[in-house]
Specification:
mainly alpha
Length: about 180
């Protein structure tokens, strides 16, 4: 029996790939690739709420089959995005209900993700003008670090020379390179 002769009901049975088509041999699947009608793929995506792996189980195919159909056919891509958007709306509604119920975790999550422009953030992301990336030259940072190290070494040597002149009684504490975390 080949795929094109199977009714859709028989293909869609079972939760796994093996249960969905146990009567098709490996040779048959190599020779004949099943063609899924747009309507069947769209219904599977709607039922699975945009989850490709679950939709592939419904149809009894590999998830890549559905991914390729999403890439190839705009009507299937639109159905996929609509299913994802509907699920996002459901999640947002549940989140809003939890915020209105006074759940601290929901309030915190909402403020961190949606209230960033009012300062409710854990970390700040920086960008250049008009959301362009910031360019940092490593050479500049390296030169600045070298200048700081040189300044500390000179100060260390100066303080060492003063302590020799004072007879071992240093005029203050020495910072040394240990303050940089180096030895």
């Amino acid at each position: 029996m080949i795929w094109k002769q199977l009714p859709v009901e028989k293909i869609q049975k079972g939760p796994s790939l093996l249960k969905a088509r146990p009567f098709v041999s490996v040779e048959a699947t190599k020779k004949f690739k099943p063609e899924y009608k747009h309507g069947a793929v769209i219904k599977a995506l709607q039922k699975s709420r945009g989850l490709i792996s679950y939709a592939s189980q419904i149809l009894g195919c590999h998830p890549n089959t559905i991914r390729k159909q999403i890439e190839r056919y705009p009507v299937i891509a639109a159905a996929y995005h609509d299913a994802k958007e509907k699920m996002l709306d459901v999640a947002e509604n549940q989140l809003f209900a939890q915020v209105e119920a006074g759940e601290a975790w929901a309030i915190c999550f909402y403020l961190k993700t949606q209230g960033w422009n009012r300062g409710y953030i854990e970390r700040r992301e920086l960008s250049g003008n008009a959301d362009k990336p910031i360019h940092v030259r490593v050479e500049d940072a390296r030169d600045e670090l070298a200048a700081r190290i040189t300044k500390i070494i000179v100060r260390e040597q100066t303080e060492t020379n003063h302590s020799k002149v004072d007879g071992g009684k240093g005029a203050g504490t020495s910072l040394g390179l240990a303050s940089l975390g180096t030895s």
